[in-house]
Amino acid sequence: MPPRARAGLRRFGPILLFGAATLLLILSAGGPVFGGGPGPAPESGDHGVLPMVLLGLIMVATYVAIAFELVHKTLAAMTGACAAVITAMLFGLYETRGFEKVHETIGHDLGVLGVLLGTSILVEIAGHSGLFHFISVKIVKKTGGHPIRLFWAMAALTVVFCSFLTIAPGTLIMVTLALAVTRELDYDPKPYVIVVALCANSGALVTFASGICTMMVGQKAGLAYLDFFRVTTPLALITALIAAFMVRFLYRASLVATGDAAARAARVAGFDEWALVHDRRVFWRAAIILVLTTIGFATAQTMDVGLDLIAMCGGVAALLFSGFDTEKAIKTVKWPLIVFFIGLFVIIGAVQDTGLLGILAGSIEKVSGGSELGLLLIMGIFVLVLSGIVDNIPVAATLIPIVSAMAASQPVVPLWWTLVVCSNLGGNSTPVGSVAAVIALHALEKERGIKIGWGEYLKVGGLVLLVQGAVALGYLSLFKELGLFPGMNS
Amino acid sequence: MSEDNKEVDASLGLFEAALRAQKTTLELPRVEEVVLFLDGSDQDPTAGVLARALADRLGARLGIHEPPLGDDAAANVDRFRAAAAGAAVLVLPVPFGEDIGDLKSESLSSSVDLALAELDRPLLLVRQALAEPERSLARPVCLLDWHEDLQGAAASWSALLAGRDGEISLRIGHDPELIAEVRAIFDDHADDLATFESMLQRAESRVAGGLVAALQRLGEERGFAIDFAGLGGTDLVGAVLALTQARDRIAVAAHRRHESSSASRVRDLILRSRGPVLVIPG
After folding, report:
1. Residues of B with CB under 8 A from a CB of A
2. Is the pLDDT assigned to residue B158 strictly greater than 90?
3. β-sheet bridge partners, residue B93
4. How many CB atoms lie within 10 A of CB A417?
5. What's the whole-model pTM score?
6. Which residues of chain A from 76 to 115 reach within 8 Å of chain B, CB to CB?
7. Tell me: the pLDDT tens digits for A204-227?
């Protein structure tokens, strides 16, 4: 799209959309204009084709705006949500004023928002405590600066850090470590940065709380924390190994030890990890709270409490005992992301009420020919491909109600796990597919002036995803066929 | 991308601090005597209490010099010099007006000005009364200069004061005049200004990395706590004073007597401080 057209659309598109919808609302004051008629809202899927088409278009338009960055993704979701609510009201999908229905929709997702909010605060404090920076420099010192050992250490640390901190903060720490260490040792930063970007998405599979999509699907599907260790943790390690081996192979020419090994080892031994610890009290308390929260997550089901409560307690404990400035910590929560979620949930809620998602679920089931395994594979491939193009959060958010709708006709446990795995790994294929790649490539260009274009990234990431996707789908199919998914036999 | 850049710079600054940390060895100063000079003002009792607390904390003897100081600044400084022949800290009361805004430029006496310029001994300048002098001394707020030798001097004295139960806050930053000038230049370029401020913080982490590491090790060994922050575009003296005033803490700063920027920063700190300031000549 030409820049002027994009600028024009960015400037006037949402205004026009909002204005048109508001005008319709004014014209219809006192009751819905199209169908439905006054009185209580009819049941889902009972409103005719037009609202279904219009709300479907609003959802698609929102995703296009997000994918092509026509406006900030939060603004796109908010605009889409406003348009969706107004449209739903016009067609009588919602009762008068409609806000109760919106509140109800958001209320269904408060669990996800609670987990997000609590973990955001905790992760922010843990990330800034110096704990993870400290551990990473300790490990780098153990490698003696040898390029191959350093490469493997980077890959392993990325999986571990992203599993504790989620993708964005984990990637930030590891990419900046890669940039700083490779500068000191005069290494090519590319293989280190790319392996971080690719392994981060595997890290998001390790536990329930490791990734935003993972949390979202896990919370909505009611997947138990400990079940992740049985299903996705081994796959996280396998897919990270695939990524690391392939990057190691593709960049083998860059991963060669040069210069005086003794001098390099002495230089690395001189790295001082204590320079990273700005406050030992915050450092130790953050470590303790993180461990306790992880134990809380693991035992939440046994204690019969929600993961949102554990996450909130972890966040509050971090604020209370870390000595970190409360206002600063709360300000650094990714509020745009939380608002983005709310907007997305409202849009999807409205679309769900038209019955469109139920029809889509039925169509997908028909395409699979009634085969549960076929359905798993079709959905897996679809999510893997789409998550590389569009932000994986809307992809997962849209598929959640679709999978829920399928629950009436077949067991959906394998589909939930497929959604968790594929929405996280799918981002590996393109430079804009995952937040890890965006952070890594941006930092590489900013710090070292090295730009990795779509072509180069697709060659590596696309190839890695091809292998990872095949292995992941094979793994999930095997789990399904052997009945290894937890809860499948109950 | 300014917010993302800020996060990248902050994390890189940390790693650069660790990877390029200068090996720093902190030697705790030895103090044999705390020498108190009285000036006959209402501040004498406050200065007396703080000097006693300092002597007790450092295990030094306390010497009190009376009669009060005279009007001749040069003669007074000669008396200071004669009294501070050994390993001593000089304690001087410094007048302080309630309305700091009006009295700011004239609230240091000529004797103190001359002592700051000429003496090579640490000076503890006592201002308003403290509720708990012992506790104030154990929790120094240390203003760090960009010169590494001055950083070491201020940090060593802070560690000595903190002892086994204290806590040290380390702050490094820049002069507000410099920041204001840069802000004026970047007035219409918010992204450039944000980049400048995050790069400043990154540089601060790197410059102080060796010292932070050495102090953390010393703190681990001796039992005191440390918190460090680079202030980026925030007024350094203002930030140090905010910390000292909020919790009645002592400020510690080192300066080069004949170097205008560090000397004027320390003078600014003393002028604006309501609490005690320990000044270490570099």
Report:
1. 1, 4-5, 7-8, 11-12, 14-21, 23, 209-210, 212-214, 216-217, 219-220, 225-229
2. yes
3. B126
4. 28
5. 0.82
6. none
7. 999 998 988 999 899 889 899 999
Helix (H) or strand (E) holding A213: helix A212-221
CA–CA distances in Å: residue A100 to residues A83, A89, A107, A346: 16, 12, 10, 12
Partner B contacted by A446 (CB < 8 A) = yes
CA distance A319 to A279: 15
Strand bridging mode B277-281 / B123-126? antiparallel
Query: What contacts B222, CB < 8 A, 6 or more positions away?
Result: B159, B162, B163, B164
Amino acid at B168: I
Tens digits of per-residue pLDDT, A381-424? 999 999 988 888 889 988 999 999 898 888 899 999 999 999 99
Q: For residue A245, what pLDDT is reported?
A: 97
| Whether pLDDT at A244 is above 80 | yes
Buried/exposed A277-296: b ≥16 CB within 10 Å, e otherwise: bbbbebbebbbebbeebbeb
pLDDT tens column, A108-159: 788 888 888 998 899 888 888 899 999 999 999 999 999 999 999 999 999 9
A129 touches A286 (CB < 8 A): yes
Distance CA B50, CA B267 (A): 21
Find chain B residues with C-beta within 8 A of A187's C-beta.
Answer: none
Residues 6+ apart with CB under 8 A from A135: A157
Helix (H, G, I), strand (E, B), or coil: what is residue A10? Answer: helix
Q: What's the residue count for chain A?
A: 490
Which pLDDT score, from 0 to 100, does residue A412 have?
93
Residue with the two structure tokens 């200069």? B145
Q: Is A46 on the interface with B (CB under 8 A)?
A: no
Query: For residue B97, what pLDDT is reported?
Result: 54
* CB atoms B212 and A277 under 8 Å: yes
Q: Which residues of B touch A275 (CB under 8 A)?
A: 14, 17-18, 21, 209-210, 212-213
Residue of chain B nearest A435, judged by CA positions: B4
How close B252 gets to chain A, by Cα (Å)?
Answer: 18
Residue numbers in B near A446 (CB within 8 A): 1, 5, 8
Give the integer Cα–Cα distance in Å for B25 and A192: 34
Pairing assessment for the beta strands B61-65 and B123-126 based on DSSP bridges: unpaired
With b for 16 or more beta-carbon neighbours within 10 A and e for fewer, the A444-455 pattern comes to bebbeeeebeee
Q: Which residues of B touch A323 (CB under 8 A)?
A: 227
Residue range B2-281, CATH number: 3.40.50.12370
Q: How far is CA A370 from the centre of its chain?
A: 30
CB atoms B18 and A272 under 8 Å: yes
What is the Cβ-side half-sphere exposure of residue A144, based on CA atoms within 13 angstroms?
9
The residue with tokens 């039925």 is A362
Residues A421-444 have a mean pLDDT of: 93
User: Under an 8 A CB cutoff, do B19 and A278 touch?
Assistant: no
Segments making up each domain of chain B, as ranges:
2-281
**Which positions 111-150 of A are in contact with B (Cβ < 8 Å)?**
130, 133, 137
Chain B residue closest in CA terms to A281: B225
DSSP readout, A99-141?
Answer: HHHHHHHHHHTHHHHHHHHHHHHHHHHHHHTTHHHHHHHHHHH
- Give A177→chain B minimum CA distance, Å: 6
A–B interface: beta-carbon pairs under 8 A: 90
Distance of CA A47 to the CA centre of its chain: 33
